[in-house]
Write a structure and sequence with these properties.
The protein is of the alpha/beta class and about 375 residues long. The chain has one domain: Glycosidases (TIM Barrel, Alpha-Beta Barrel), CATH 3.20.20. The chain has 13 helices and 9 strands. The chain has an 8-stranded parallel beta barrel with strand order 1-2-3-4-5-6-8-9, surrounded by 5 helices. Helix 10 links the parallel strand 5 and strand 6. The longest helix has 19 residues. The two termini are about 40 Å apart. About 40% of the residues are buried. The chain binds alpha-D-galactopyranose (GLA).
């Protein structure tokens, strides 16, 4: 017994001297007073079959986003059938753990059954029918979680990198006002939930201007939009900091909240020169572009940690304008970047490794926040 106390005292002594540092502070404590900090969670997390992932979320995060369970394809797999099971569980997990709950996503071109756009005979439907379907979907999903889900990604990825509108079925069948309609229906279904537009590469000047035009247009039509999400699927050399600053300032000047909604940092080689962030694109696997299958070399781990530090310095500069930072996933083990834009690679984009341990990147962020205070 005496021996045990002796060792404990030695450890306390050493850690006060900074020699042993076992401390793994909760991110939500570290960022308190700045912004909410969270993660996109999958079913294994909310059902707690992946109990270690669930523990990380409970310890570190005060906001969660549904990684997949609320996407049209999963929550509304056939025109006359909804499947709320996993989404209900997601919301229950968030409420039980006192979290700010983000619903993702109502209107998107991807992960949606093609039958939404077709009649029984397989012909493309007309504007009025699609608007009716859109309204029914939004009323049903948003209505079910009224006063439980705190914010919704209402429209996801509607704008191309060059600032034009993405050529989706929504645009083709309804026309440009499908975006206003989606926000209008979401507001009618839950006037108290925050409503967001969410996209990637927002900082590209043409895209930024297009997002600003969209926000102004909605405002001029008296349609409520509360914030813009910057997905933040970033890399070692993007986004450009000046462009990021300009984007945050522009959205803030329009009176809207800014959030980083899907943060991760891709460290693997890009598959091709014409690579873009288009989710529907997939490239062929080859071993040269999967260099870390046997583990992350310490120097790359360090590089990632430095990059995360840089990114959080950039984010913290805007802490009064940014209301939330959400990572896209919890550990490297389940990150979507193991399978995109090439299936079956070993990627390391998050703060927690494959054995649920905090990485260097986690500690580098803690250091940045502490030095910022
Ligand atoms: C986009 C979507 C997310 C998710 C990621 C990758 O950013 O908004 O829902 O699908 O791609 O998984």
């Amino acid at each position: 017994m005496k021996k045990k106390i002796f060792y404990v005292l030695i450890i306390i002594g050493l850690s006060t001297l900074g020699i042993v540092d076992n401390e793994e502070p909760a991110l939500k404590e570290i960022f308190k007073g700045h912004f909410l900090i969270g993660a996109a969670v999958n079913n294994d997390c909310v059902y707690e079959t992946d109990s270690k992932a669930a523990e990380i979320v409970k310890k570190h995060f005060n906001t969660i986003t549904a990684e997949n369970s609320m996407k049209w394809l999963l929550i509304h797999p056939e025109n006359n059938r909804y499947d709320f099971e996993a989404a209900d569980k997601f919301v229950e997990f968030g409420i039980k753990n006192n979290m700010f709950i983000v619903g993702h996503t109502l209107i998107w071109h991807y992960q949606i059954p093609q039958s939404v756009f077709l009649d029984n005979k397989g012909n493309q439907i007309k504007r009025d029918t699609l608007l009716k379907r859109m309204r029914e979907h939004i009323y049903t999903v948003v209505g079910r979680y009224k006063h439980k889900v705190n914010g919704w990604d209402v429209v996801n990825e509607a704008i191309n990198d060059n600032g034009t509108l993405r050529n989706s079925k929504w645009l083709e069948i309804i026309g440009e006002d499908y975006i206003s309609k989606a926000f209008q229906f979401a507001n009618e279904a839950d006037p108290d939930a925050e409503l967001y537009y969410n996209d990637y590469f927002n900082e590209i000047p043409e895209k930024r201007d297009a997002i600003m035009r969209l926000v102004r247009k909605l405002k001029s039509e008296n349609i409520r939009i509360d914030g813009v999400g910057i997905q933040g699927h970033w890399g070692l050399d993007y986004p450009d900091e000046k462009n990021f600053d300009a984007f945050v300032d522009s959205i803030n000047a329009l009176g809207l909240k800014v959030m980083i909604t899907e943060l991760d940092v891709d460290i693997l080689p890009k598959p091709a020169l014409n690579w873009s962030a288009e989710i529907a694109e997939r490239f062929k696997y080859s071993p040269e572009i999967d260099p870390y299958i046997n583990g992350l070399p310490p120097e790359v781990d360090e590089l990632l940690a430095n990059r995360y530090a840089q990114l959080f310095r950039m984010i913290l500069k805007h802490k009064v304008k940014i209301s939330r930072v959400t990572f896209w996933g919890i550990t490297d083990r389940t990150s979507w970047l193991n399978n995109w834009p090439i299936r079956g690679r070993t990627n390391y984009p998050l703060l927690f490794d494959r054995s649920y341990k905090p990485k260097k990147a986690y500690f580098s962020i803690i250091k940045i926040v502490k030095s910022d205070q």
